[in-house]
Specification:
Layout: H1 5-38, E1 41-45, E2 51-56, E3 61-66, H2 75-105, H3 109-122
Antiparallel strand pairs: 1-2, 2-3
């Protein structure tokens, strides 16, 4: 037996109303997620504790704290400490954002995984720092001695040879240009 047309229309209308309500709820959750993500910040300290960096949800530095121990360090060592803390803080972002997203849009793991994956690609785990006390490490170095590069410099390309300058009295090809009338 067939349902009357009016029953079908009421069912369709109820289903549309239900879909609209679900879409509105989802939009509210996404707005809440966006607001929560904008509030995310992550901090990390360098291995030696001389530098602490805080980054926002985009990975931008919002705070930098350096201890007085840097007075005894070279500029290169201070830079390494700051960059190490920065990379560590940025690498923590994907996990923190995943937590925020799970709390706000938990029913959409595909969106969460896509966004967290893009953050992992942008802010990967930092490379492990070489052990400065291991084999081949130096006992110390002079304060103004630069640290050795971790990779050898690229080979130099030979410079092209330039032809010698033309003689002043050479009016042939390559010499001065004069128009005679």
């Amino acid at each position: 037996m067939r349902e009357p047309i009016s029953d079908k229309a009421e069912n369709a209308e109820a289903r549309v109303d239900q879909l609209v309500a679900q879409a509105k709820q989802k939009a509210q959750r996404y707005r809440a997620m966006q607001q929560a993500v904008e509030q995310v910040s992550v901090s990390a300290a360098s291995k030696d504790g001389t530098a602490t960096v805080t980054v926002d949800s985009a990975g931008n530095v919002t705070d930098l704290r350096i201890t007085d121990r840097v007075r005894e360090m070279s500029g290169t060592q201070v830079a390494k400490a700051v960059l190490s803390a920065l990379r560590t803080a940025q690498a923590k972002l994907p996990d923190r954002l995943g937590e925020v997203m799970a709390e706000t849009i938990g029913d959409d793991p595909q969106t969460r995984d896509t966004i967290v994956g893009s953050y992992r690609a942008k802010f990967p785990e930092p490379e492990p720092e070489p052990d400065e006390t291991g084999p081949g490490a130096r006992i110390g170095r002079l304060a103004d001695e630069p640290e050795a590069a971790s990779t050898p410099p690229p080979p130099q390309r030979p410079q092209p040879r330039r032809p010698p300058p033309p003689d002043d009295d050479d009016e042939g090809f390559g010499g001065p240009v004069m128009i005679r009338e």
